[in-house]
Design brief:
Oligomer: single chain
Number of domains: 2
Shape: rod-shaped
Order of helices and strands: HEEEEEEHEEEE
Distance between the termini: 96 Å
Radius of gyration: 30 Å
Largest sheet: 4 strands, antiparallel
Number of strands: 10
Length: 181
């Protein structure tokens, strides 16, 4: 099942549970444990759900499913060019929308942008929020904070030939020879 970015992570997980079980159980009737990574069996994640105290259900049940690796959403690092007024939150939302990620399920591994980065690019990662129901892994992101062209990409010769003296009888540039009388 594909992630529906217009609903929450818990609603996506409930849609998966209900689809595969051909049921219509409401999330409010369940309490969700912490998802854990598994390496054997079905999928890469296990989660235990428990019937909520006032629900029409009782007991617990274990589900196994596949969370998505963030790195699989984009080949290589995502490049984002910073614009005036951008914040980490707005950048995250833009990247999430472009890649079809649930914005509330991911976060940056940095808390602020270094606008004075000497390379002009802040290298960071998007990672799942703690206990994400949907994602695992991480996704490299390069935020370009300075789009000016470095001088070493413009100039290729540093050892200049220097200035020459004018040849005898040649006018100095910028001056005209006196008129002959």
């Amino acid at each position: 099942m594909q992630i529906n970015t217009s609903i929450s992570a818990i609603e996506n997980l409930m849609a998966l549970i209900n689809r595969d079980n051909e049921t219509e159980v409401l999330a409010e009737h369940l309490e969700f444990g912490v998802p854990t990574e598994v390496t054997e069996g079905h999928g890469n994640t296990a989660i235990t759900v428990t019937a909520a105290p006032l629900s029409p259900y009782k007991g617990t049940y274990d589900f196994f499913y596949t969370r998505l690796d963030l790195a699989d959403h984009h080949e290589g690092a995502v490049e984002y060019v910073f614009e005036e007024g951008d914040t980490l939150s707005s950048i995250k939302a833009d990247i999430a929308a472009q890649l079809g990620l649930l914005d509330e399920e991911v976060e940056f591994d940095i808390s602020e942008l270094d606008m004075d980065d000497p390379d002009g690019t802040v290298e960071c990662s998007l990672r799942p929020v703690a206990d994400s129901l949907i994602y695992i892994g991480s996704l490299a992101v390069n935020i370009v904070v300075d789009t000016r062209t470095p001088l070493d990409q413009i100039f290729t010769v540093s050892e200049l030939n220097g200035f020459d003296l004018p040849s005898e009888g040649e006018p100095v540039q910028g001056e005209s020879l006196p008129a002959k009388t």
